[in-house]
Design the sequence.
């Protein structure tokens, strides 16, 4: 009986298998790279009801983080400022700015606005999965600065998520905490640098913040856990 198929069709199943494998492999690689916190979460920068500038308030005016985030060193979570915190200043400062109209609507009784008394609905930026436990006070009270997780937030006109906050990213810090440890009085100093190290050590070999971090790690006997139960309670 005559052969109806040309000889090259003998290799067709192999070619199909190779192409299917390449497509599947490419899909896995793409998912591995793009479906991660580094690409999905880092850089997230939502619009806020009031365009609050950390650069103006923190870098130029020198406000301490704890003025607005008043629970950060005593609580497991960091609070966002309530209306009263903003109104304490802005009933006197920049009170005619159109950017602050949402605040005036909620705090100025003379306006008789329907939003009076309602909280400002700030958009949360830094989020962890519900099954992840993170305690702000435990980190802040052991020398981990806001800057380690949130980046150079004092220079941000609009806050965005700088780091991925992924499990791997957290483990990097737990395995080498000396890169982030600093004296407790420097935790809220977002301009802390190698130039500040000399104030805390007379040891000539301690020249960088990481050198001092190693000393603090030994002094405080810091040994962060890296087991699953650390964060997944």
Sequence:
């Amino acid at each position: 009986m005559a052969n109806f198929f040309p000889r090259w069709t003998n290799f067709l199943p192999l070619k199909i298998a190779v192409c299917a494998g390449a497509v599947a492999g490419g899909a896995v690689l793409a998912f591995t790279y793009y479906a991660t916190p580094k690409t999905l979460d880092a850089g997230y920068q939502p619009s806020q009801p009031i365009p609050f500038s950390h650069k103006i308030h923190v870098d130029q005016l020198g406000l301490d983080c704890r003025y607005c985030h008043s629970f950060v060193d005593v609580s497991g979570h960091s609070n966002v400022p309530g209306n009263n915190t903003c109104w304490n200043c802005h009933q006197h400062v920049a009170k005619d700015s159109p950017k602050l109209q949402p605040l005036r609507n909620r705090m100025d009784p003379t306006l008789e606005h329907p939003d009076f008394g309602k909280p400002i609905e700030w958009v949360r930026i830094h989020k962890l999965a519900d099954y992840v436990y993170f305690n702000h006070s435990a980190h802040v009270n052991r020398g981990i600065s806001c800057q380690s997780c949130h980046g150079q937030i004092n220079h941000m006109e609009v806050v965005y998520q700088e780091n991925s906050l992924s499990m791997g990213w957290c483990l990097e810090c737990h395995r080498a905490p000396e890169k982030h440890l600093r004296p407790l009085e420097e935790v809220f100093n977002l301009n802390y640098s190698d130039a500040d190290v000399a104030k805390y050590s007379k040891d000539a070999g301690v020249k960088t913040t990481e050198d001092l971090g190693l000393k603090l790690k030994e002094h405080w006997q810091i040994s962060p856990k890296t087991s699953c139960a650390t964060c997944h309670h």
